[in-house]
Amino acid sequence: MAEHHAGEDGFVQPAHFAFDAESEAAIAPILAKYPPSRQASAVIPLLYVVQKQMQRTADSRWVPRAAMDTVAVRLGMPPIRVYEVATFYFMFNTKPVGKFHLQLCTTTPCWLRGSDDMVAACKSATGIAHFGETSADGLFTMTEVECVGACVNAPILQVNDDFYEDMDAKLTMDLIAALKRGEIPPRGSMIGRQTSAPVGGPTTLTTLDSPPAE
Ligand code: FES
């Protein structure tokens, strides 16, 4: 395995990064979308491939500096251009996170629907005191995020890539307990809501009958 060196923030940065076979299989169709002179357009999808590989190999979805350099070489672009993208977008983690990255939306619609209770339950269940910290067992990192675009089913707790919706304190505690047991509960509404229909079921377009012929 590659040698390591400590980064500026005190965590360990791998000295080398190489895409594995599963990543290479994912990269090929991505690069095929862009002409040879426009391969740099694939920088965001390739950074996602990096995070997924880190999840598989290190149980932590993040993008090491060495991986940014590998992406830069693959796409024929200056490393600083990759650093700019990776550090600009909040969905890329530039330092290690827990196996389960808990991204809690506290923007107004989620706040009005009880995100404070969700946050308190997360802290209680994981032992994490503040946003940005990782639990002592290394399983969870809590991050406060702005609107993730699912306000209709607020409040939202995003775990890695999955949305858990209509959360409350008990549902949050139950979800984290399940993750600790190694279970991954089905994502989506946690109160059985049909997609984004009203609580209790759809109130319009409740039949598939065709309108009468004129
Ligand atoms: S405010 Fe939380 S998803 Fe929009």
Key structural traits:
214 residues; alpha/beta; Arc Repressor Mutant, subunit A; Glutaredoxin; 2 domains; 5-stranded mixed β-sheet; two-stranded antiparallel sheet; 7 helices; 7 strands; 13% strand; globular; binds FE2/S2 (inorganic) cluster
CATH topology (level 3) name of the largest domain: Glutaredoxin
The stretches of 5 or more residues where confidence is low (pLDDT under 50) are: none
> How many individual domains?
2
In angstroms, what separates the terminal alpha carbons? 73 Å
**Largest sheet, order of strands side by side?**
4-3-5-6-7
Proportion of residues in extended strands? 5-15%
On the 0-100 scale, what is the average pLDDT? 94
What is Rg? Answer: 20 Å
Label the CATH architecture of the largest domain.
3-Layer(aba) Sandwich
Structural class: alpha/beta
The CATH first-level class of the largest domain comes to Alpha Beta
Number-wise, the strands total 7
The biggest beta sheet reads: 5 strands, mixed
Question: Looking at the chains present, what oligomeric state does this protein adopt?
Answer: single chain
Number of helices: 7
